[in-house]
Write a structure and sequence with these properties.
With 373 residues, the protein is of the alpha/beta class. The chain is 41% helix and 14% strand. Helix 8 links the parallel strand 7 and strand 8. Helix 3 packs across helix 4 and helix 5 packs antiparallel against helix 6. The protein is globular and about 65 Å long. The termini are close together.
Length: 373
């Protein structure tokens, strides 16, 4: 088959898409398939001028709001770029963003177009304080799920939890397939560690939805309890200056290192001991699987796809959202009990190899693709 993987962000952008989709090409090519990646360059802004119409709702009732207007303009830009660059036809198009999916179906109405919904833009905007829950921007963004359901030939998502979330906005949620992300094991090389001081690491965008304020508060509590540690934060984002100020205010500046954005954090993670990320929402949480494949002990919040990856007390520790003391207790347990820490890390590594392998994802996707042949 000849398949186009239609991304929104370029494949080097951080997140679940870049963790899996670019790595799909090689195994499918080895099977004799043709597969290409397509995305919108970051420099393309404000180029598109074509009208936008959706079948299931009138987006113009939400116009005039920055989030909506930017989204619609980005749709126009993606349409403009796709008309210029996508010249050949494909047996199937697999999109990885609502804009990419709806644009491709508009351009290629006779080609099967399926989409994987990797995350919820509207939930992140709500958690980051950018839009109000139930407000017009929220209604606009969730209406796109119904549009995708009606227009596209199939929907996929990355966790059973997120499928449940999507069921609120779709008519036939039972038709949504669940295919968790898969990871090329060759990218992950665990190493033997002998860190005299326990090393925590987290990898994420620095936005409120990731709960880094809770992590810093938990680290301050850990220090008050007399436990030495280091915290390494990989990533960047709008609240990084606030987080850096917090480390000073909480007296953990000397224990905290900010690295900024890193293209391949999996090359760095194996040298640390414990991965911790107290997200307030995650559709899947690819970075937990990546950390597990680096054989790190895991601490996460009992939400979304994180709770599907971590079996509490077996492959990691789950804590409630926004619970500083519970997070500090979990971190203290792992700092003070290296045998337990290693036991959790080993179990998480074995589960990730078994459940989140790239080979498993390729086989599941191959079955889906062949159903449209």
């Amino acid at each position: 088959m000849n398949i186009l993987q239609a991304l929104f962000f370029p494949p080097e952008q951080p997140g679940g898409v870049s963790s899996m989709v670019p790595y799909l090409v090689e195994p499918f090519v080895e099977m004799g398939w043709n597969m290409e990646l397509f995305s919108l360059p970051k420099r393309i802004r404000g180029k598109g001028t074509e009208d936008v119409d959706f079948r299931t709702f009138d987006w113009r009732q939400y116009a005039g709001r920055p989030v909506v207007d930017k989204y619609v303009q980005t749709y126009k830009d993606y349409l403009w770029w796709s008309r210029m660059r996508v010249r050949q036809t494909y047996d199937l198009i697999h999109a990885h963003h609502p804009i990419a999916a709806l644009v491709m179906k508009r351009l290629f109405p006779d080609t099967p177009v399926i989409a994987t919904i990797h995350s919820s833009y509207e939930r992140e905007l709500i958690l980051n304080g950018k839009i109000a829950e139930g407000g017009p921007e929220h209604r606009f963004l969730t209406s796109l799920y119904g549009e995708m359901e009606q227009r596209l030939d199939g929907l996929i998502t990355v966790s059973h939890s997120f499928k449940t979330y999507l069921s609120r906005y779709t008519s036939n949620p039972e038709r949504i397939r669940v295919i968790p992300n898969g990871f090329d094991e060759r990218r992950f090389r665990p190493v033997a560690r002998d860190n005299a001081v326990p090393q925590f690491i987290t990898v994420c965008r620095h936005v409120p939805a990731k709960g880094l304020d809770v992590l810093l508060a938990a680290c301050a509590e850990l220090k008050k309890r007399g436990h030495p540690f280091m915290l390494h934060l990989i990533g960047d984002g709008p609240i990084r200056p606030d987080l850096e100020r917090m480390t000073v205010e909480l007296n953990i500046y000397e224990e905290t290192c900010f690295y900024g954005y890193m293209l391949h954090p999996e090359q760095f993670m194996p040298f640390f001991d414990i991965f911790v990320l107290p997200s307030r929402a995650e559709a899947f949480g690819s970075v937990f699987a990546e950390a597990a494949l680096c054989r790190l002990a895991l601490v996460g919040t009992d939400v979304g796809g994180i709770a599907e990856q971590i079996e509490n007390g077996v492959t990691g520790i789950l804590v409630p959202v926004d619970d500083v003391n519970a997070l500090a207790d979990a971190m203290e347990r792992l700092v003070t009990d290296p045998d337990y820490r290693n036991k959790l890390a080993e179990a998480a590594w074995l589960k990730a190899k078994r459940t989140y392998s790239l080979g498993r994802a390729v086989e599941q996707l191959k079955n889906v693709y062949e159903s449209y042949a």
